[in-house]
Design brief:
Elements lengths: L9 H4 L4 H25 L5 H25 L21 H9 L20
The protein binds zinc ion (ZN).
Keywords: Membrane, Transmembrane, Transmembrane helix
Length: 122
């Protein structure tokens, strides 16, 4: 039983699961924004190009915010190095990164691994 639950999600260990939620919100902004601006345009509140433009701008901004959070705020608690970059400094592709986080992959730099209890007392 202990062996089964020893590994935990990296984002959970770092208490940064909200980053996943941020990525989720971004996914909804585009369809909701476009439907919303279509409705507002049909009520003559704003013109459709303005609404669509705003939607794309907000969507782009949230995508950038997500990118910055993922690639600049996730640091290894042991060695302080970036968990989202390869040793050569390149960004790890999003999908590979999230699979790694979900399975609690060790830090590429020092081998730190998110385990239950390792952050206790911090
Ligand atoms: Zn490390």
């Amino acid at each position: 039983m202990r062996a089964l639950c020893a590994r935990m999600n990296t984002l959970e260990a770092l208490k940064k699961t909200w980053i996943t939620k941020l990525g989720g919100i971004e996914f909804y902004i585009l369809p909701i924004g476009l439907v919303g601006s279509y409705l507002l345009a049909s009520m003559d509140v704003i013109s459709l190009p303005v609404g669509a433009g705003l939607t794309f701008a907000i969507s782009l901004m949230s995508a950038m915010a997500y990118h910055i959070c993922v690639y600049y705020t996730l640091k290894c608690p042991q060695c302080g190095k970036n968990l989202s970059k390869f040793n050569n400094g390149k960004n790890i592709p999003s999908k590979q990164l999230h699979n790694g986080f979900a399975s609690g992959k060790p830090c590429r730099h020092c081998g730190w691994q998110p385990e239950y209890g390792t952050l206790a007392g911090r």
